[in-house]
Amino acid sequence: MxxxxxxxxxxxxxxALFFAPVIAAVTIFFYLPQYIxxxxxxxxxxxSPARAVPQLNLVDAxxxxxxxxxxxxxxxxxxxxxxxxxxxxxxxxLARQVRLALAEKRARVQRVYLAGSPAAAAAAKAALAAEHxxxxxxxxxxxxxxxxxxxxxxxxxYLLDPLGxxxxxxxxxxxxKGLHRDLKKLLRISQVG
Length: 193
Description:
This protein is an alpha/beta fold. The protein has helices spanning 3-31, 86-101, 118-128, 142-149, 176-189; strands spanning 45-52, 59-60, 74-80, 109-115, 136-139, 157-160, 165-170. It folds into two domains: 3-35; 45-189, Glutaredoxin (3-Layer(aba) Sandwich). Helix content is 40%, strand content 20%. The radius of gyration is 24 Å and the shape is elongated. The chain starts with a helix and ends with a helix.
């Protein structure tokens, strides 16, 4: 075999090795879509596309207007009322544990208890503030809040980004590890908040 033919075969082999994965990917994507994995990498339910939180007339537990309560930090929001049953307390403890497990990044995440009225927020704060000193208690019109979040699970946690977009919802059956993994990944990828 002459040296020129050997060089050509080497070049063709290198080109085949380079283009084979591209051709295989295009073939699978367009002609064999049943072989595309349908798995997901997020634990919570993704809101796609993300929905911007409307201008909710929020007030804190003392009744003072606070329009920026859901901005500037990643927010784990729990929709609650004046009283917090056992399942509510379990969700709040879970959210606290996940936030603490974020270590140095926990300052970028806040936990929010969103009640339907200022009186409900004040009552919840009186009952829960000792156990949850870093929990932010705010209230909005229950009609506005319900219209936006459309809660189907009373014990769900809602994840909002620092720009006020609703990204994910975590049902009442969530586990610590899945929520922690999602938040850790989001905080690593995002420089916002």
